[in-house]
Amino acid sequence: MSGYKLLGVLVFIYIAYSAYIGEVYAKDKTSGRTIFRSEEKGYFWAVISCYFVLSLALFFIF
Predict the structure, then answer these.
(1) Bridge partners of 35?
(2) Among 19, 22, 30, 31, which residue's beta carbon has the most beta carbons within 10 A?
């Protein structure tokens, strides 16, 4: 398994873990913050979706 496929699997595991606990870390320019599903439901799922697309790209494209 190549390094990119392994990284794609790890990102997918992080997605599953974040969706289960209800919080995800999102980078914003030079800093980052934790997004909570209970506070910002739409933004939380948008970040999860971006990570999911990244996971697919790492696994299938690279």
Answers:
(1) 24
(2) 19
Q: Do residues 7 and 58 lie in contact, with contact meaning Cβ atoms separated by under 8 Å?
A: yes
> 51 with 11: CB under 8 angstroms?
yes
Structure tokens at 24: 């995800």
For the residues of 1-61, what is the DSSP string, one character each?
A: --HHHHHHHHHHHHHHHHHHHTEEEEEETTEEEEEETTT-HHHHHHHHHHHHHHHHHHHHT
pLDDT in tens, 39-55: 999 999 999 999 999 99
For residue 11, the one-letter residue type is V
